[in-house]
Amino acid sequence: MILAGDVGGTKVNLALFEIQGDDLTLVVKHQFKSADFSSLEHLILAFQEKVSFENITAVCLGIAGAVIEGECKATNLPWTISVKKLQKLFKIESVKLINDLEATAFGMLYLKDEAFVQLNPKAVASKGNRAVIAAGTGLGEGMLFYDGKHFHPIASEGGHTDFAPLNPQQDELLKWLRVHFPEHVSYERLVSGMGIHIIYKFLVEQNFAPEPQQMLTRSLHEDPSATISHCALRENDPLCLETLKLFCAIYGAEAGNLALKSMALGGVYIGGGIAAKILPLLQESDFMETFSAKGRFREMLETLEVKVALNPETALLGAAHYAKERLLWSSLSS
Fold first, then answer.
1. Which residues pair with 144 in a beta bridge?
2. What is the mean pLDDT of the chain?
């Protein structure tokens, strides 16, 4: 039995999988709110109250944060997670922490074609490295290195690189951001759930358009980014539409940056919770234009596959397969 997890800043998905031949079968899955727990260990104990850990032989968790020497300080949570603590908790040696984008990237390899939507009408399928980018609570980036036969997931913290504006409107946005975040303005500040709200507040201060009633009357417990997305997609509110259009343009630009840095001839795969929810706007926006607008490399980028993954549990699936292939099968063959 494998215990797999997707540990994010907002929620944590934990699941048990059985190995049946070459396949994995989901046995049980539970979702928890990250903020309800003081540590991952406490959350895992809550999971143990619902299921038996008796037959677990391997554990793999995808964590939103940099994993260094078996330890991770979660980026958007006050948690420090270590392999040693989890080995004691589960009483097994086969425990692995990987970056959540490593897990997402690995999971992409096991999704069927119908689990993706192609954004690039000019795409030409090709073999090579694949880039993976995922906006959710934060902005995750990773890649799948292709050695000619197999793909190997590689972690990254590229979402924390410096934001670069593309036009006068984005120049003004960066000036505004530097007032609020004088130390550093990253792509994650904008291409994330919190980023949608930040862009919205910038446009409000620019007097772009009146605020919709739903934003003025929402409770403090409501997710402002979800309300903005609703007003844009369902109400055609001008302010919220412009917010998401600007969000998509910046998202596309950074996806193109990642494609160049990883030489992703095998395509760019978009995960995370936001893309699938705003898919119509992603398709109609300047996403592909800003993705491709890289000067002398425009021609190359215009032919890359750019796919949105619709499965919200790609990282969980990837963590489970990582445990099966890198922890269990590799130990059997060594």
1. 130, 153
2. 95
The tokens of 136 are what?
């959710």
> What's the CATH code of the domain at 275?
3.40.367.20
Give the pLDDT of residue 334: 46
259/138 Cα distance (integer angstroms): 19
Specify whether the CB–CB gap between 15 and 26 falls below 8 A.
Answer: yes
| Domain containing residue 257 | 158-309
Tell me how far CA of residue 305 lies from CA of 99, 125, 311, in angstroms.
24, 6, 18
Q: Which residues of the chain have pLDDT under 70?
A: 329-334
Angle between helices 224-235 and 238-261 (to 10 degrees): 110
Question: What is the tally of structural domains in the chain?
Answer: 2
Alpha carbons 9 and 132: distance in angstroms, whole number: 19
C-beta separation of 309 from 116 below 8 A: yes
Which tens digit of pLDDT belongs to each residue from 16-72?
A: 999 998 889 999 999 999 999 999 999 999 999 999 998 999 999 999 999 999 999
Closest CA relative to residue 57, chosen from 320, 314, 315, 317: 320
33 within some domain: yes
